[in-house]
Amino acid sequence: MTTLTATTATTVTQLGGRIGAEIGGVRLGGDLAPEAVAEIRTALLAHKVVFFRGQDHLDEAGHEAFAQLLGTPVAHPTVPSADGRYALGIDSHHGARANQWHTDVTFVPAYPAFSILRAVTIPPYGGNTLWANTATAYTHLPEPLRALADGLRAVHSNEYDYAALKPDALPEALAQYREVFTSTKFLTEHPVVRVHPETGERTLLLGNFVQRINGLTGRDSRTLLDLFQAHIESPENTVRWQWRAGDVAIWDNRATQHYGVDDSDDHERTLRRVTVDGDVPVGPDGLPSRLISPEAVPAPSFGIPSGASNGSADAEAEADAASAASAAPASA
Ligand SMILES: [Fe+2]
Q1: Cα–Cα distance measured from residue 262 to residue 118, given in angstroms and rounded to the nearest whole number
Q2: Residue ranges of region Disordered (predicted)?
Q3: How far apart are the CA of 251 and the centre of ligand 1, in A?
Q4: CA of 8 to the centre of ligand 1 (A)
Q5: What Å distances lie between residue 296 and 77, 188, 306, 322, CA to CA?
Q6: What does the alpha-carbon distance between residue 252 and residue 270 come to, in Å, rounded to a whole number?
Q7: Domains and CATH numbers, the chain
Q8: What is the set of active-site residues?
Q9: What is the pLDDT of residues 254-307, one digit of tens each?
Q10: pTM of the model
Q11: 103: CA distance to ligand 1 center in Å?
């Protein structure tokens, strides 16, 4: 375990060999000093997920105000917020839980750069969350698999078989969740390897919103997805956090996947998530992700559409120009 003392009273304690650090000596909020924000951002980019204990003072407004120090908050494209603004409710009473490895909102091109999750009510046991480092998952691949991944693109969607994921959920709850979650059906093509816009690292961009890998049969697609996911989910490549009420976790959503363990039976588990707007991914060949459908990412009920703070419209125009130039089949 490494302990680094930063320039302020902030401490950064590494938790795992490849991912995770706990940050101490910080009271999160909209009034945090710029040096502390810079230290958090540096630790976040290095360790991919950072944890803070004892942030019980935060409410929805403080949570959002802190998020604004990392970028532009963005609401979920389809699920209404818990506060009418940006705070998404992660609630154990929903029909579907996050017990699948995923990166948040990858069914749109410019999915969030950061997610900030605050624990409100924590069950007496279980309900931990795991994160995996998708940059080290890539660098630890043998060279032939890295070369293979570099050339692949995959289609992500918010429409999948909820009943297959959660066979013991109440059918009515599942149907209701699905109706809201997929009120707009998105299809987005991403490179399987993303070049990180801030660190330059290559990361594997997969997770449970992936439907298939372009140009492959369903069976080959599933085989390759399982192969790459196994490297992402390997225990050495992950960190696990046992929540207490008042904890905050922030992850670099461009370099991680996460998994909410569904093992606290019927106990209440309530968290709030605010996401920070991201930009359109670019593969090793320089080709950006592209939205297949609908024609544009609609604005949520509050705030900007995903990617609007980072000029995603320009990147999509470039993607269209690039596919036209390479005489690729016309997109829908
Ligand atoms: Fe998530």
Answers
A1: 18
A2: 278-332
A3: 10
A4: 31
A5: 11, 11, 10, 18
A6: 21
A7: 11-309 (3.60.130.10)
A8: 102, 104, 258, 273
A9: 999 999 999 999 999 999 999 999 999 999 999 999 999 999 999 999 999 999
A10: 0.89
A11: 6
- Section 224-230 average pLDDT: 98
Upper half-sphere CA count for residue 212 (Cβ side, 13 Å): 8
Looking at per-residue pLDDT, the higher value among 175 and 59 belongs to 59
Residues within 5 Å of ion ligand 1, judged at the Cβ atom: 98, 104
- Assess whether the previous peptide bond of 294 is cis (omega < 30° from 0): yes
